[in-house]
Amino acid sequence: MKISEFRKYLSIDKLALDEAVIHQASLFYEVAEACAEAIAERDALKETLELIDARLDATARRKLSEPKEAEVKAFIKTDPNHTAAHDDYLVAKLGAEQLTALKDSFKQRAQALRILADLYASNYFDDASIKTNANQDRIVYQASRAKLAAKRQK
Fold it and tell me: What is the pTM for the complete model shown?
């Protein structure tokens, strides 16, 4: 699955908590597995980049007469093999970081599901539409007083 497909599963329908709880573990596993694969790919590309840089370093030291460190670094950084390997590494690094963030989001989702399930068990959602706040209570009180005052004047 792609990251955009996994993101769709982050939202929680509070009216379908049972389904969300049932699928949470398998979704988290899929994200964690994709994350592990992305990290392994990133690490492999980093190793490849380091290997290319080491070979280029040796080549630079052979080709340049009395090379200075800055010249060797410049030789490595401007080589097309280094540039291509570095670009591949950066793409893999971004993917790994995005999947790590997604994995963290699924951990948060699991915690949110626990909290929502607790709220559901305590009938929070049943009473939520009936609950009023102080401002609503004051408005109802004032309207009732106005009605009573109007009736008294008749």
Answer: 0.73
Q: What φ, ψ does residue 131 adopt, rounded to 5°?
A: -60, 140
Question: What is the C-alpha separation between 114 and 24, in angstroms, rounded?
Answer: 11
Q: Is 115 helix (H, G, I), strand (E, B) or coil?
A: helix
100: tokens are: 């790590």
pLDDT in tens, the chain (154 residues): 789 999 999 999 988 999 999 999 999 999 999 999 999 999 999 999 999 999 999 999 999 889 999 999 999 999 999 999 999 999 999 999 999 999 999 999 999 999 999 988 888 777 555 666 788 888 888 999 998 888 888 7
Helices (H), 64-128: 69-78, 80-121, 124-127
- The phi-psi region of residue 132 (left if phi > 0; otherwise alpha if psi is between -120 and 50; otherwise beta) is beta
- Give how far Cα 122 sits from Cα of 24, 119, 127, 144, Å: 22, 5, 10, 32
In order of 58, 125, 137, 138, 153, the CA distances from 147 in angstroms are 94, 33, 15, 14, 10
* 74, 76, 78, 82: CA torsion to nearest 10: -150
CA 54 to chain centre: 35
